[in-house]
Amino acid sequence: MTYFESTGNIGITAATNPVRERQFGYSSTISGLLVMCFDAGFVALTLPFGYYGARIFTKPQWCSFGAFLIFLSFLLLCMPTFLSPDYSITFSEEYSTCGSQRNVSFCTSSASSKNTNSKTFVFLLFIGFALLGIGNIPQNTIAIQYIEENSSMGGFYFGVMQSVRSIGGISGAIIAAITLQVPINLKELPVSSTHLLWVGAYWIGFLYTSIAVAVFVPILLIFPKSFKTDEKTKASDSYDGFLLQAKSLLFNIPFLLLNLTSVTEAIVFAGFFNFSTKYFQDVLGFSTDVASYVLAIMILAAALGSIIGAGFTKIRNHFSYFLSMLIGLSFLQLVAGHFILFKCNSRAVAGINLDYSGAAINEVQLNSTCNSKCKCDEELFQPVCDTKANIAYYSGCYAGCVGSTANCTCVIGPLVQGTCSEPCFNMYISISMIFIFVVSMVGKIPLGIAASIKIINVDHISFAMAAINFGQRLSGMIPGPIIFGYLFDWSCILWQRSCDDTEGSCLLVDQTKLTWSVYSVIMTCCIFPIIFYFLAFLIRKKKNKDKKPSIIAVSPVIDNTDKNHVVSIF
Known about the structure:
- By secondary structure, the chain is mainly α.
- 61% of the residues lie in helices and 4% in strands.
- The protein has helices at 2-24, 28-56, 59-83, 93-96, 106-109, 118-135, 137-140, 142-150, 154-179, 203-221, 231-235, 242-250, 253-274, 276-282, 288-315, 319-336, 425-454, 461-477, 479-490, 511-547, and strands spanning 349-350, 384-386, 391-393, 415-417, 492-497, 503-509.
- The strands form two sheets. A four-stranded mixed sheet has the order 1-3-2-4, with no helix packed on it. The protein has a two-stranded antiparallel sheet with strand order 5-6.
């Protein structure tokens, strides 16, 4: 079940975020809010689930209920495509060349890439993401304690679970890459899958995963309450009061510091991961399907990190050892985080980020002497690429093309449809560093869980895992996508225009502005965990030192009333 859940939740969702932006014409900030709904649903109920869940029903029953909600959520993520008007793109010589005589305006004659009543359909996406978050609660709280109660290798199996989740994410990214090459409504579109306005049939992946997850709803109900029947396992069913458990964790400073590190990690993980395909397209110049394959490589790195982290937990079972490994991986992550500085100067568009002579500009200047007699329509974004100069133009009209793209006054070489792209060595450096970055970041998850379990009562594990997830989601994974979504919108220099003069999704970003802003967030979130790990290590070391009993010389007290010498030490 974890495999299919992660296929939809990790792979397909992250790979298709930019596609949904184009389909419904909303900004990256809205994308961040959608992802936030997943974590908001998780946060709203995670603590009650973690504490009361196993008291009301058995743990397998709760896991089955979570699977049912995940099934419903994937279905809801498909529904907007079925309910909304068909997505369409105008690509006609009549509207994209200079000197066209238009009897009907562009907006009247053709649907723009933003469908009517899109807000209604986006509302369904919000509900779907919220249900997906709630459905994930049992997996991340109750299921962990179920594994811990029935196995002596809980940390190892948690790492295996993370690996399965990563493998599912890889499958989801590959499925997304394949389905994104199919037109969204299974009807031919006038552009190729590499075009900026292309929208693929991402809903096929969600439909597949919803059916697969539904199969596990009855299967999970078959699992017993416990696989053990000895007294030790039964004793683990006893709980302290809710407030006593909360107080125990709140006054556990090392545990709180580990929680803070997970918060900073969650900001980067949730923010960058959910916008990774958009980053690959905007900064490295990949097409939608290629970006999905790169996402699969990124998730593969996460799987490798989980395996490495789980393996480290088996070498030694000591808190100080876990922290030393966490600090080492954090330094590696800090170095690899500089991947963000390597970018490719792709998607240069004359009049947007370059003038018509090829020099960089800071403001949009679509009109030039070579197209001054053309009455071009700014609402019609149909980029064409001058393959010789490697410069794209807003449309054939703005390239000064008369009648067809074979006769243009602004260009040097032949024109092809779409933006320009060329091989860039920086993309290989960036992807290699991203791989190391993800391995080190995800490798810390099993180590962090193992370290947390070492310093809390075993009966508090379920509640502690709920508290960790609560902190991660509330302070890290909720703001993370919003922060990154805002940075993408803040860096945008070309917005998709709709017929009602409102801005839709971002089509082109200022690469320098985006990379440095994202770099600042990533570096900040990489430095703070190192500080927190050191503090946790020092505090725990001092606490253990204070607990060591002093050696006091005492005299034996002999009870003469008995023939045996009874030694008492006071």
